[in-house]
Design brief:
Chain B: One of its GO terms (molecular function) is ATP binding. The complex is a heterodimer of chains A (311) and B (450). Chain A is mainly α and 311 residues long. Helix content of chain A is 57%, strand content 1%. Helix content of chain B is 31%, strand content 11%. Chain B has 16 helices and ten strands. The chains are: A mainly alpha (311), B alpha+beta (450).
């Protein structure tokens, strides 16, 4: 077991940084993300604007659960789901959101994330139809514009998935990220405001990676400590966070991620993609959206690929 | 020389944006924010909470699943932002402000004295047509129209890109990508996006003005450029691209039309509509990117697992083109796999047929059909076109490194800048800040004027 994961035990190599596939040091990218995060997220814990009829954390969690489930339903990768949640959180912590509009904000956030992360263009009516939503294309466009204005058009926000990707690359373990089952773990984390409002994405990511590494190697402390020093994150904060993350997964009866479990899943990705898993959060008297209730796989015409600008 | 050619076009039109102009143009970033004194960079601070409901355009009965009848009834009477309700009287305004102050979360940067409702109410977005005067139409396509414009405030010249928004469609992905990516790409060799307006059902991007694109410049130099100009332009292209790649951003549509030049010979990357931030290694992307003539062979054969090497092939094609004045691989078809044989044939006829021993991964590409490709041997660039003598052996060597068939073998932008081909450049060129042009160095500035 240890021979297959020598990279996980090499603290010094983690500190030195590894060249990623395209020759860019993962350390460089990690530093860029940390700088961006520091600029964009200066005040913790996060808070929602209070007021009559405004959303609370419960509504936030519910919409994040909807986004994660919707992203999976229409075949989006984890990066799109993670970015959608990051955009959504940025908006709801920046402006007041009446409860009756919050789902539209979630739809707009997911749409923007999809356009940034996916290569296949899809008309707005098709996107809305696949999710069984009754908003019009015009309403979606106006919501997208509003969201982008709040973000100052800076929609490529640091997000959980991006940090996890970088940290795993530092440990030469990026191959673990695409696992479908690991996605469940990240989804539950994204949808828990007690974690996302109290810890930065980098801390959440490092805590997640530490749990993953712990499951695969008994000497997990060494590389994790090295990463914490690299990111300038106190280990005390990491430890507090990872306990909460671990408890979250335990509450939802999720198995702790292990190498066998994650890698075995890679061979069954096609079949797993057809399985919908419920994300149960804050049962609400409000009727669930049709897309959340639908269990069958939604098919649609093949999306048009992006085209380069004409000569 | 670049400077003389441009000067013959009617004199310099370069108008650096004044400090006031910059402030005014960035004003619209904050037109909907309470704190009008926010930093111009935008990303340096957390946006302030708004008292105003910015989503009031959804005024009809919401059909979202978050709504229920009882909630609607309880909410409607209190919705002061409803279009059907008159604005609150001044006494209510004061009361509302007090309520906001009590509930507003405090932070180290919060100062209630800087926020007044009257000031907020008076802020109105400026109309782009009131700010800029159109001078000339620079280009038009199915996606957008670009105008040369003059600022009515300070007389500076900018380029306005008006993006067409169809009524029934969502926001174009190209617009979101371009804006979002350029917000984090501030570099001397990347076009600067000054401002964004959404008015009159139209999206308008305000870019810095550049004299022309490289394609138009090549039309004026049918035999290619002078050797020193080639070197200066190529280095700037590599410099801007390296900055993108270090941020793991792929341009994915490099071609002369998307490289802009100013009167001083500064080159800038433009059109980031197809660009994207690279994700996890296992992520696959569309293989229908990059204009055909600049598309690498691995992508032509269906690879969707590309990386920065995609852009580097494009650099090689452009390098060759500015040497000879003509495209190196001008394929005539751009459709299905069978149609791309023509493009592949052109590539292989110069670079040789793929060698499975040197490029074992080629066998896994869906479009690789070795039995259909004629056997070609790699040609020297001199044999292809005698004009490649301009770049000497070092330049030809670098060109070969850029145009490697195997993507993993292509030189990176960072490594290319260190190639001996650029040995005549001062070492300080590698120490410049990202926002500084290479012509800040006297040695290079003098080279330009030769």
């Amino acid at each position: 077991m240890n021979e297959d994961f020598d990279g996980l035990t090499s603290g010094s190599s983690a500190a030195a940084g590894k060249l990623m596939q395209d020759g860019i040091s993962s350390t460089q990218l990690l530093q860029m993300l940390l700088q961006r995060e520091k600029l964009l997220y200066q005040n913790y814990p996060l808070s929602l604007a209070s007021g009559e009829g405004m959303i609370g954390w419960r509504e936030r969690n519910r919409e994040c659960a909807w986004m994660c489930a919707a992203a999976k339903r229409i075949g989006l990768e984890m990066d799109a789901a993670s970015l959608a949640v990051s955009i959504f959180d940025r908006v709801v912590t920046s402006v007041k959101i009446p409860g009756k509009y919050v789902n539209c904000v979630a739809v707009g956030s997911l749409s923007i994330a999809k356009k940034l992360c996916e290569d296949h263009e899809e008309d707005a009516p098709v996107f809305l139809g696949r999710l069984r939503l009754e908003y019009s294309a015009q309403e979606l466009k106006r919501m997208e514009i509003k969201i982008l204005e709040v973000l100052r058009w800076d929609a490529h926000l640091p997000n959980l998935n991006r940090f996890v990707e970088c940290l795993l690359s530092e440990l030469d373990a990026a191959f673990l990220l695409p696992s479908i089952n690991f996605r469940k773990h990240l989804d539950f984390l994204l949808c828990d405001s007690t974690l996302t409002s109290n810890f930065r994405w980098s801390v959440l990511a490092l805590s997640t990676v530490s749990l993953l590494v712990e499951a695969t190697n008994k000497h997990w402390q060494y590389p994790i400590n090295a990463l914490a020093r690299l990111c300038k994150i106190p280990m005390s904060e990491v430890n507090r966070c990872r306990v909460k993350v671990s408890n979250l997964w335990s509450r939802h009866v999720l198995p702790m991620p292990s190498t066998f479990h994650l890698l075995a899943d890679l061979d069954d990705q096609d079949s797993d993609m057809d399985v919908d898993y419920p994300l149960a959060y804050d049962s609400s008297p409000h009727p669930q959206a049709p897309s959340a209730e639908a269990s069958e796989y939604i098919t649609s015409p093949a999306p048009r690929a992006l085209q380069p600008t004409p000569c | 020389m670049l400077s003389r050619v441009f000067s013959q076009k009617g004199g310099s039109t370069k108008s650096p944006i004044s400090k006031n102009g910059t402030n005014e143009m960035t004003q619209s970033w904050h037109s909907n924010h309470v704190n009008g004194a926010s930093s111009g960079s935008g990303s340096g601070s957390t946006p302030e909470h708004h008292n105003k409901n910015i989503f009031s355009f959804l005024s009809r009965q919401s059909r979202s699943r978050s709504n229920n009848p009882s909630e609607t009834m309880s909410t409607v009477p209190l919705n002061k932002n409803s279009p059907s309700m008159p604005p609150p009287p001044s006494s209510n305004t004061v009361a509302d402000f007090t309520h906001l102050r009590r509930r507003r979360p405090r932070s180290a940067h919060y100062d209630p004295n800087t926020i007044t409702l009257p000031a907020k109410e008076e802020v109105t977005p400026q109309d782009v047509n009131d700010l800029y005067k159109r001078i000339d139409k620079l280009g038009e396509g199915s996606y957008a129209t670009v105008y040369k414009c003059e600022s009515k405030l300070d007389g500076s010249i900018v380029a306005l890109k008006e993006i067409k928004l169809q009524f029934q469609e969502g926001l174009p992905f190209t617009a979101i990508r371009e804006a979002s990516l350029l917000r984090n790409l501030r570099h001397a060799n990347i076009v600067s996006l000054h401002d964004i307006f959404y008015q009159h059902h139209q999206l308008t991007f305000v870019f810095e003005y550049m004299k022309m694109d490289l394609s138009k410049y090549l039309e004026q130099n049918v035999y290619g450029l002078d050797s020193i100009d080639i070197k200066l332009l190529l280095f700037q292209l590599l410099r801007g691209l390296d900055f993108c790649h270090r941020k793991k951003i792929l341009h994915r549509d490099l071609k002369p039309q998307n490289l802009l030049l100013d009167e001083d010979g500064v080159l800038k990357l433009a059109d980031f509509g197809l660009a994207r931030a690279k994700s996890v290694p296992s992520r696959t992307y569309s293989h229908e990117v990059v204009t055909l003539w600049y598309r690498p062979p691995d992508v032509l054969m269906g690879s969707t697992d590309y990386s920065t090497s995609l852009d580097m092939w494009g650099v090689g094609c452009i390098f060759a083109e500015i040497c000879t004045g003509a495209a190196l691989f001008p394929g005539s078809k751009d459709s299905h796999y069978p149609g791309t044989k023509d493009q592949l044939d052109m590539i292989f006829s110069i670079r040789g047929t793929p060698d499975e021993k040197k490029w074992p991964e080629v066998k896994t590409l869906p479009g690789y059909t070795p039995e259909l490709f004629p056997r070609y041997r790699e040609l020297s660039f001199i044999a292809v076109n005698p004009m490649f003598t301009k770049i000497l052996k070092t330049g030809q060597e670098l060109l070969g490194m850029l145009l490697q068939l195997r993507p993993e073998s292509r030189v990176s932008a960072a490594s290319a800048m260190l190639h001996p081909y650029f040995a005549s450049f001062p070492r300080e060129v590698h120490l410049l800040a990202p926002s500084q042009s290479i012509f800040r160095l006297k040695e290079l500035k003098d080279l330009r004027s030769l």
